[in-house]
Amino acid sequence: MTSFRTRTAISRAAPAVTSIAAAAWSSAALASQGPGGGIGTASPLTQTVMAVLVYGMSAIIVGAGLIVAVLRRQRAS
Q1: Stated pTM of the model
Q2: Among 2, 6, 27, 77, which has the minimal tally of Cβ within 10 Å of its Cβ?
């Protein structure tokens, strides 16, 4: 069972994590399009590579955060 201190910390951190994740996903969608939105923009390969890098880094960061949270929770038990 989680302690009151842990629950308080999680409830305080949740809005910050949510806003950071939202900012990361919104910028990722724009970054994956390359410079501009019409003819003469980045090639499809470049757009794909950029999308994979941006979304992949976001997934790694979120995954690492979840792993740390689970490990801390197990230690506290």
Answers
A1: 0.45
A2: 77
